[in-house]
Amino acid sequence: LLAHLAHRRSGVVRAQLRLVLEGLVRRLLAPVEQQEVWAAGVTYLRSKKARMEESDFSASAYDLVYDAARPEIFFKSLPEKVVGPNEPVGIRADAKWSVPEPELALALNSRGQVAGCTIGNDMSSRDIEGENLLYLPQAKVYDRSCAIGPWLILGASEEAIRAWIIGVEIIRANETVFAGETSLSNLKRSFDELAGYLCRSQTFPHGAVLLTGTGVVPPDDFTLAAGDLIRITVSGIGTLENPVAVV
Predict the structure, then answer these.
(1) Which residue of 69, 163, 228, 232 lies most exposed, with the fewest beta carbons within 10 A?
(2) Which of 176, 179, 187, 164 is nearest to 46 (CA)?
(3) More confident residue, 23 or 150
């Protein structure tokens, strides 16, 4: 209706309505209501190498899980803790090495079937995880550690999605300090395989969101800082943008 009025009214009214529409877009909520958010790890070769490099004693565990039949799957966030587009994502105050993890997010229905997809950011404290594998929940699950959005794409086939490119750009003081991308074709495991393992011995009456792992990892000498801006883009979906804050 607003768009229709904007098309028919005077130039001044059109400009005012455009501002209203843009304001609504800026206030998009995460496309998550009652769904739990889970995540899969070590699903890209680059991710396996990065996690092996961050800790000597845990290297063999990541090496084994990459080739194992059973994937790594862990709980990420309650729905009410998920951050939406343009909201701040968090880096832990007690972490020294924090990175974003740009990921394709699968939206599952109550039967465990993939119903759609969106963009996810699995914020991670690599120094905490690298110190001890048992610290993984603290490295992955904390306030503002998960961003999802900007919207869900329905009906796309896995074949089509795997042709998309996922990339991340990190901006600091108006300059790009890191940028990288990869093809979703590099995701090792199929969508149904990941969803199937998540739903084993579990029920999700409201559905679930499953992050599928990252294939873009900043170099080991990089860490996020408060005030950074993270832009994650998937070619078939759009862009999820979030500023960074200390929590």
Answers:
(1) 69
(2) 187
(3) 150
